Fold this sequence. Notes:
It contains 17 helices and 18 strands. The chain is an alpha/beta fold. It has 2 domains: 2-258 and 471-486, Rossmann fold, CATH 3.40.50; 282-465, Rossmann fold (3-Layer(aba) Sandwich), CATH 3.40.50.2000. The chain has a 9-stranded mixed β-sheet with strand order 3-4-5-2-1-6-7-11-12, with helices on both faces. It has a 6-stranded parallel β-sheet with strand order 15-14-13-16-17-18, with helices on both faces.
Amino acid sequence: MNIVFxxxxxxxxxxxxxLGDVCGSLPxxxxxxxHDVAIFMPLHRQARDWFxxxxxxxxxxxxxxxxxxxxxxAEASYFRSELPGTDIPLYLVANEHFFNRxxxxxxxxxxxxxxxxxxxxFCRAIIRACELLGITPDIxxxxxWHTALLPLYLSSGLRGxxxxxxxxxxxxxxxxxxxxIGRAAQFAALGLHGRYWSPDALEHFGEVNLMKxxxxxxxxxxxxxxxxxxxxxxxxxxxxxxxxxRSLSFKLTGIINGIDIEEWNPEDDxxxxxxxxxxxxxxxxxxxxxxxxxxxxxxxxKTPLVCFISRLVDQKGVDLLIPALSHMLRAGxxxxxxxxxxxxxxxxxxxxxxxxxxxxxxWIGFDNALSHRIYAGSDMxxxxxxxxxxxxxxxxxLRYGTLPVVRLxxxxxxxxxPFDGTNADEATGFGFMTASPQDLFIATWVGMLxxxxxxxxxxxxxxxxxxxxxxxxxxxxxxAVYRRALA
Length: 487
């Protein structure tokens, strides 16, 4: 199959979260299955900086071209590189007005949020590039709301031409809570016939909803874990689209995300003070000592070290973490925190770090190498997410022998087996249900108690480190989805 990935983010070039990680990893395994793969993404300022910093090759692919749609016209410049570590072509769409911004999803300088217009441009630019480059996709795989218009454009007439005559679309929901919602007046910027302004297309309670259109018009829809696929069909987690998803559940599949097991491998991770494996855990103990030195915390024998690595937003359960963290520290734990996001959360966590500096270190920001060292050196990872479509951090932690403490929601249900005292043969972490600081503390306290039993702890570590979170299994499931779309 000839597969085109359309995405706003690709790791490590430009990303804000799991979308970038998936679109930096999944194309690799699809290529290993024998498919011809190409990727399109915008040339964000973050991507420009990455190419300048790394010196990775990038060249002009198509001379600057005028993209015409509706009553709009904009210029697109196309550059070609390769997905790092592969020969998979990566095409980057450049436009100074739309993509040269400080943050990937930043509004215009005047404060106007033009996300609808600029990602409509991005989708039209992908279509034009395929025509000019002679790419005839069998599968057009669109990711999240930024590329949700592609299934609609296929439906609205593209299949009448030679480039897309046989193309079928797969649409992946990475986070249902970000839907690409705009004012009714912005529909005119999409270049679609008026029939698409209806409740069975893009209109949703008087507004434009790009994700809704992608779900309805895609040949197949996927999301990033089986449990999340179930949750988003309920009013509690459906974000207003649960009815649409229930009515189209016949084409909805939940496929758990994978991780790049070459990058995340404690046996040869260059970021670690000492490498290790599930059969040789001495290196993990040395990594813990090194992390504590880096955090300027004193090593204390038999003292568990908990960590939290995340964007600091309400979805991640930071409101639960802040009050619970102080109790954990008073109960005898040490903690390290790495993250950035809303200033109120940054300030609150920084205060905890200052007030209990002998037991807690808080790093505001993000450092990929440091995150590797934290996973390796910690004993437990806290993930009190309010909702979590899939989650990757718990998989990284398990691979590094760090036991997750998770709220049992979304993909965390699919990837972590809570220890209940009777299932040491299969358990991989600790869990709680109610979104409260008390329940987070209790689940962590249970983990702290079990940490004192070395034989149980090593058994749980071995269980987690032996789990297969590679993309190989998930890639086979995506391959099946592509074939259903073509059928």
